[in-house]
Write a structure and sequence with these properties.
Layout (H helix, E strand, L loop, with lengths): L1 E8 L2 E9 L8 H47 L3 E6 L4 E5 L2 H6 L3 H6 L2 H6 L2 H12 L4 E9 L2 E13 L5 E10 L1 H47 L5 H27 L7 E3 L1 H15 L4 E6 L7 E3 L1 H17 L5 E12 L13 E10 L6 H5 L18 H11 L3 E6 L5 E8 L22 E5 L3 H13 L3 E5 L2 H10 L4 E7 L7 H11 L4 E6 L4 H5 L7 E5 L4 H13 L8
Parallel strand pairs: 9-11, 15-16, 15-17, 17-18, 18-19
Antiparallel strand pairs: 1-2, 3-4, 3-7, 5-6, 6-7, 8-10, 11-12, 12-14, 13-14
Length: 569
């Protein structure tokens, strides 16, 4: 005999209880009823056991999930948070909050006002309006943390219930202060580049005008006798023209479009040479101290320009010490390795000569330091400065391949430090200067300039000292003139910046089709590419505008008399 009883859980059969006997009809009705009850008890026990297993598995999965969440939330740099909008209560905030906000999590759990108070006053109303909307948001704002200001990017996402109301808001906040600083630095560079291009363009056009003004004044002075009333007026014009030429040189230095004539020198020698003049510039209540490293590595710079750098920094320091103080100029060697100090983080690995100028003056706040090298920015009263001094210093240093840093604090003085890459070459021994070459001549010259005033004046200046002068208004006209007078023109004087064909391209064409013809390029400014291309060698030289009659005649004569370079024809 056999009897089978299903094991049912919630109307679902999960098994069977089977009972067997050796005799047919062995089980009576009462026994079958008892076996049915036993099957129900077994099914119930299995259901309870299954529920217990499922509960334990769920608890284990929850603990694992919570552990993963805790590990993630406590190790990431971002701040993870959960907010109950109905109660305006922070339910959770990750440990990174304490590092970013410089406040305890307990203060935030106690009151959300702790977070509200941290928001910069200028950003607070905007941020609170967005958060109170209970909609998704992505906001950047400032907080006051640890006595300083930090930028935060905060993103919130609502978790809505069946009715559509936000039951929770979860979010993540991160410190973006470094990114904001980098963006501001990029904007500053872009502004400086834009102003630099504008300044260079102005300087170029202004130098053309000054070439005419200053040269005509020099010609007039040569004709006006001593004591004549007109002579003093001409001298006044000449002096004003010289000051204007100096201003354009500063603009070109700032925009890094001046021509540098680098030499291998020691910064120690430049400081020593400038020291006598510095003592005249400084007041009696200012003490000058120099500390020069005896083994300073040589650098490649334009000595005249770096004299200007030292003088500008010294004058700036003098003006920052109205009640006197100490001005210290120091040199030292610096080796930058891949794991260098953060103060030199933007310098490439290698050896540097460092020049520091330190004063004990009034110092500067952060806002002033950020604008320090902008052209025409000055903290001096009207009439006491153009705002080009430090912009000029910055331009010369950068164009020389170096870098400049400033450390300053209000009431504690300022230190400017210039870093220049070392060179393996050694400074050349000082040589006696040769007597100037005679400035007259009889050769045939070609003047090429798109500015009619400069072109006419240059031809006139050269005609006065004996040369035969041809003129052209551009590159194509110049080449046609050379073809028509083949072999007669010994030297071409050409402006670099001309429409159609530049002076540098004209120089290449002359070298190709008229080898042996000397070339003197003139410019109100020049780009570094002119030097990098190796164009200014041998039979091609450069003359900066504005130039005067004597400088023009001397440079022409020197180039004509120079020994012809190999392969020039």
């Amino acid at each position: 005999a056999a009897a089978a009883f299903p094991l049912r859980v919630k109307n679902r059969t999960i098994g069977a209880l089977n009972v067997y006997a050796a005799e047919a009809g062995f089980f009576n009705e009462e026994e079958l009823g008892l076996l049915g009850d036993l099957a129900a008890d077994i099914a119930f026990a299995l259901e309870v056991h299954q529920r217990d297993l499922e509960r334990r598995e769920a608890e284990q999965a929850l603990r694992a999930s919570e552990e993963r969440f805790r590990e993630l939330a406590e190790t990431i740099q971002e701040v993870f948070w959960i907010l109950d909008p109905a109660e305006n209560q922070v339910l959770y905030v990750s440990p990174a909050y304490e590092k970013v906000w410089n406040r305890s999590r307990e203060s935030l759990y106690a009151s959300r006002q702790s977070w509200v108070d941290s928001i910069h006053p200028d950003d607070r109303d905007r941020v609170l309006r967005v958060v109170a909307s209970h909609n998704a948001y992505d906001e950047e704002y400032r907080i006051i943390a640890g006595g300083g200001v930090r930028w935060i990017r905060d993103q919130g996402f609502p978790v809505r219930g069946p009715t559509g109301a936000a039951e929770r808001i979860v979010g993540v906040a991160r410190d973006i202060t470094d990114r904001k600083a980098a963006e501001e630095q990029l904007r500053q560079v872009q502004r400086m580049e834009s102003v630099g291009r504008l300044a260079a363009g102005i300087a170029h056009d202004f130098n053309n005008i000054l070439t005419v003004i200053n040269s005509v004044v020099d010609l007039a002075l040569a004709e006006v006798p001593e004591g004549a009333p007109l002579r003093n007026d001409l001298i006044t014009i000449r002096d004003a023209g010289s000051q204007a030429a100096g201003l354009t040189r500063q603009l070109l230095a700032f925009s890094r479009r001046q021509v540098l004539r680098p030499e291998v020198v020691s910064l120690n020698s430049l400081v020593t040479e400038a020291e006598t003049l510095l003592r005249r510039l400084l007041r009696e209540d200012i003490t000058l101290v120099t500390r020069l490293a005896p083994d300073l590595v040589p650098v490649s710079v334009d000595p005249a320009q770096f004299h200007q750098v030292i003088l500008n920094l010294a004058v700036n320091s003098r003006d920052a010490m109205p009640r006197g103080g100490t001005l210290t100029i120091e040199t030292r060697n610096l080796t930058v390795s891949p794991g260098h100090h953060p103060a030199e983080e933007s310098l490439l690995a290698g050896r540097y000569a460092a020049l520091s100028v330190t004063d004990t003056g009034t110092g500067m706040d952060q806002a002033t330091r950020q604008r320090l090298f902008e052209p025409f920015f000055t903290t001096k009263e009207a009439g006491k400065g153009t705002g080009l001094g430090l912009a000029t210093v910055h331009g010369i240093v950068k164009q020389s391949g170096g870098d400049i840093r400033v450390e300053s604090e209000v009431g504690k003085g300022t230190t400017f430090t210039i870093y220049l890459p070392a060179t393996e070459l050694r400074p050349a021994p000082a040589r006696a200067r040769s007597a100037p070459a005679p400035a007259r001549g009889t050769e045939c010259l070609l003047v090429v300039d798109d500015d009619p005033g400069v072109r006419s004046l240059t031809a006139r200046l050269l005609d006065r000292v004996g040369y035969t002068v041809l003129v052209a208004g551009g590159g194509q006209e110049a080449l046609a003139t050379l073809d028509a007078n083949r072999g007669e023109v010994q030297l071409v004087i050409a402006d670099i910046v001309m429409p159609g064909m530049s002076g540098t391209e004209l120089a290449r064409q002359i070298r190709l089709h008229h080898p042996g013809t000397r070339i003197l390029l003139t410019t109100g400014y020049t780009e570094a590419e002119t030097l990098r291309e190796g164009l200014l060698t041998g039979d091609v030289q450069l003359l900066n505008k504005p130039y005067g009659p004597e400088e023009l005649a001397t440079r022409v004569r020197e180039l004509l008399d120079a020994k012809a370079p190999p392969g020039s024809g």
